[in-house]
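Entry 12.
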Amino acid sequence: MDDVIARLYAAPPEDFIRLRGEEVAKARQARDTGLAAALGKLRKPTVAAWLVNRLAHERPDLVSSLLELAEQLRSAQRELRGADLRELSVRRRSTVSALAREAVRLAGPGRGNLPVTEVEATFAAALADAEVAAAVRQGRLTKALEYTGFGETPRPSLRLVQGASSGSIATGSTATVTPIRSAPDAQEKERRAEARRREEERRRAEEEHAQAVKQARRELMTALQQLSDAEAAKAEAERAVAAAAKAITQAEKRVKLAQDALADLG
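Predicted 3D structure (tokens):
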């Protein structure tokens, strides 16, 4: 079944319905009603999703390189390595553009107005989200994807829940297990109250620190994105200036030729 699905999602969208029908008919002829039903439920991919799927099937090496870069980005974000993040952000932009160009090339000639922006957005989402990356690697997307956040969503810490079944796990801060006494005296009550106050202060401090780190990550990623965009804009402007200078030089040559021609006529 995996091979059949791979062929369907690597085929052009305009052929999807026909090919799916053929595969469903084959499954019914083989009396495999489960396979026929599963294939019949497959959704037709958009053109952008098909471009990403085709690249995943025909150039898995490029997708692997994309996912390696994604892991490097997540590692640099977790450890707040600013220099590495700047370099990787530049690589991210160039890699996304290169993969989108290759996806368009694999689509073949005669296809105008391809949704390159949606393809780039899907590759960028794969760099930011591990689940999207896994979906891109499978090559079975039905629509383009987009990531709207910055960086990696922090995972909560884990703790054992006291009073639940053995080994139960929940999110939160690390639990502190205190022995139970049947009749605590005033001094013990005061000690416990003080311990609770300290634990609450520690918890608040951890939460404030986590929020500060999260905000710093957002600001850093935003700044790096802006820097990357500015560098790309600068490069584009430099290319435009060079092209303008070339055009001026060519125009001056044409004017000179025209002047020489007029002089010869005089």
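Annotation: The longest strand covers residues 158-160. The longest helix spans residues 186-265.
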